[in-house]
Amino acid sequence: MFKAIRIAILLFILFFVAVSTWLTQSRSTDWNNSLWLKVYPINADGSDIVAKYIAGLEVDDFADIEAFITRETARYGKTLDRPLRMELGRQVRKHPPTIDPDPGIFGVMMWSLKLRWWASSTAGDQDRIDPDIRVFVRYHSPDIGFRLENSVGLQKGMVGIVNARASRQHAGGNNVVIAHEFMHTLGATDKYEMGTGQPLAPDGLAEPDREPLYPQRWAEIMGGRIALTADDAVIPKSLRYTVIGPQTASEIRLAE
């Protein structure tokens, strides 16, 4: 009897979490109310140059993310004045959990659960009211030449981890990555070739009907790059050169 009660309680908790997650995800893409995205900076390498950059950050440094979402939602006929509201949180000292190079399905599931718990517990002391989406930006020294780790955005838990360069020169590109991971939290999928980063035609192109097709003038936000040829592309310098394509708009319920 006691075992049956424990199982029933566990099932109820799982059902409650599943329903709560579904409601949150559904509300995040009904485009009836503003979404609240909060950015939490992290000093990824502990350097003084990154510490100085983080100390100088202001919420206006992320204003073009708001402007991008406002512009693109209006283009798809949504009339909400401010569909996205950005906020800058205090610096986070703890680093997110890492994932094994070859984790397997179970490893990915465990890492996802750890990341969601970490995000909630790490930011909780500064969040009297939970934001809709949390994005933790790991800033690295800009004069170190190594390739940054991949960024990630999870729809379950609505949390993102972004790796970025701590310099004004890279601020526009950083915001492109933040916007890309934000779109993942709403259910948008990648539209580029994993090995090369080349946008996949047609859904990964901003202008799939352009004649001639290349060079493209803008990047589709989930394609990630401006395709110059079928096998060459460049990262946009800012969100002014990005759009939300029809397939991505459908995935996040901007377009039916």
Features:
256 residues; alpha/beta; Collagenase (Catalytic Domain); 2 domains; two-stranded parallel ribbon; 9 strands; 35% helix; globular
Structure commentary:
It contains six helices and nine strands, in the order αβααβαβββαββββα. The protein has helices spanning 2-28, 48-55, 63-75, 104-123, 171-185, 246-251; strands at 35-43, 84-88, 133-140, 152-154, 159-165, 219-220, 226-229, 232-234, 242-243. The strands form three sheets. It has a five-stranded mixed sheet, sandwiched between helices. Strands 6-9 form a two-stranded parallel ribbon. A two-stranded antiparallel sheet has the order 7-8. The longest helix is centred in the first third of the chain and has 27 residues, at 2-28. The chain is globular.
CATH class of the largest domain: Alpha Beta
Side-by-side strand order of the widest sheet: 2-1-3-5-4
The topology string of helices and strands comes to HEHHEHEEEHEEEEH
Strand content: 15-25%
What is the CATH architecture descriptor of the largest domain? 3-Layer(aba) Sandwich
If helices are DSSP runs of H or I spanning 4 or more residues, what is the number of helices? 6
Distance between the termini: 49 Å
Rg, please?
19 Å
Let me know the average pLDDT: 87
> How does the major sheet shape up?
5 strands, mixed
At CATH level 3, the topology of the largest domain is: Collagenase (Catalytic Domain)
Shape: globular
Outline the low-pLDDT stretches: none
Overall domain count? 2
User: Helical proportion?
Assistant: 25-40%
Work out the number of β strands: 9
